[in-house]
């Protein structure tokens, strides 16, 4: 398909609305992550794939000469996704803030360089009539976008359809951005199939996330109603079953996705490690107390032995003195008696 030569006003307006949504849609999620210091339920794979998707998405939008708002959209989207991904490294994988920030900045620079190189290389070819390279780029963008929305489905499967860790304002704004961007593509003079497919995939998969959580709410309505009367939450009930080691139909399923370990660690694992460190420190303190008590006991025993030895020595000295006194007295008496007899 040839690049767009004229952009209708309606397309510009709709594209601007979609861009506004997609420029700020991740801010509520980023704020929630920062406020709670937790990214449990928010897959790092999702954020990274979406950030990576910004590269071919931006190349395709610029090569197709879409309206300016839609050309800016992938750059803002990629930036916010990298911020969210860095938060997952910090709060989920317990990376130092400086290390996660530095890595995100390096990746952003690499992505920008790759995008600029692809635009400079492919745009002349596309304008010359060779559409295949740009079409492949568009297909890659659509695949990455769809792949980024699959990890949340795995998280929902673990929790029987429940959505945890994803901000609903973010998800609503993201869906709205996809919808208005799709309308912008529809109102152009020529409908771009790949651009339309990209937005349709995003909107469809996000509707599935909404639907999954609504179904979970309906299925657990009676349980949550009773818990509310008791002043408890669903998570409190889950934690109780987990502590007792009892199975329950709504307990989280074990699911190993084989994700990259340097960002796949979740908050629960980090908390368990922190608890393990705390328990280890407690055990060390208890061991020190036991060792100190044992040392005190040994010291007391040594002091007791010394005291008993001293007492024994004193007793022996007294006995020795008594023996010496007993021997001399008879001699003196005998002597005195002898002297008296002689007299």
Q: Roughly what is the average pLDDT, rounded to an integer?
A: 78
Low-confidence stretches: 258-271, 321-343
Q: Structural class, from secondary structure content?
A: mainly alpha
Strand element count: 0
What is the count of helical runs? 13
Major pleated sheet: none
Classify the beta-strand content into a percent band: under 5%
The SSE order reads HHHHHHHHHHHHH
Q: How much helical structure, as a percent, in the residues? A: over 70%
**How would the global form be characterised?**
elongated
- Radius of gyration equals 40 Å
Distance between the termini: 158 Å
How does this model look, in words?
The chain has 343 residues and is an all-alpha fold. Helices cover 80% and strands 0% of the residues. The chain contains 13 helices and no strands. Helix 1 packs antiparallel against helix 8. It is elongated, with a radius of gyration of 40 Å. It starts with 8 loop residues before the first helix and ends with a helix. The C terminus is likely disordered.
What's a quick, concise take on this entry?
The chain has 343 residues and is mostly helical.
């Amino acid at each position: 398909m040839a690049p767009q030569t004229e952009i209708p006003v309606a397309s510009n307006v709709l594209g601007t609305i979609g861009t506004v949504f997609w420029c700020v849609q991740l801010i509520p999620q980023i704020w929630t992550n920062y406020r709670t210091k937790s990214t449990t339920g928010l897959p790092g794979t999702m954020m990274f794939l979406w950030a990576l998707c910004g590269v071919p998405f931006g190349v395709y939008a610029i090569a197709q000469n879409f309206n300016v708002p839609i050309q800016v959209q992938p750059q803002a989207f990629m930036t916010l996704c990298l911020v969210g991904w860095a938060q997952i490294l910090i709060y989920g994988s317990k990376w130092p803030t400086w290390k996660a920030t530095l890595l995100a900045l390096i990746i952003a620079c690499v992505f920008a360089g790759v995008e600029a190189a692809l635009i400079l290389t492919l745009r002349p070819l596309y304008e010359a009539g060779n559409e295949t390279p740009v079409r492949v780029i568009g297909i890659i963008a659509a695949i990455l976008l769809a792949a980024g929305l699959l990890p949340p489905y795995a998280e929902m499967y673990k929790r029987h359809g429940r959505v945890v860790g994803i901000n609903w304002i973010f998800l609503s704004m993201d869906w709205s951005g996809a919808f208005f961007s799709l309308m912008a593509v529809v109102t152009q003079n020529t409908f771009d199939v790949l651009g339309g497919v990209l937005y349709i995939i995003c909107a469809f998969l996000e509707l599935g996330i909404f639907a999954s959580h609504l179904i979970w709410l309906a299925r657990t309505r009676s349980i949550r109603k009773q818990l509310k009367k008791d002043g408890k939450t669903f998570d409190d009930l889950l934690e109780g079953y987990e502590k007792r080691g009892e199975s329950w139909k709504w307990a989280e399923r074990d699911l190993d996705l084989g994700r990259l370990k340097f960002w796949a660690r979740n908050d629960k694992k980090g908390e368990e490690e922190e608890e393990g460190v705390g328990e280890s420190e407690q055990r060390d303190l208890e061991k020190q107390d036991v060792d100190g008590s044992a040392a005190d006991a040994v010291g007391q025993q040594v002091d007791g032995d010394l005291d008993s030895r001293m007492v024994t020595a004193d007793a022996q000295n007294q006995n020795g003195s008594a023996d010496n006194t007993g021997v001399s007295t008879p001699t003196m008496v005998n002597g005195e008696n002898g002297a008296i007899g002689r007299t």
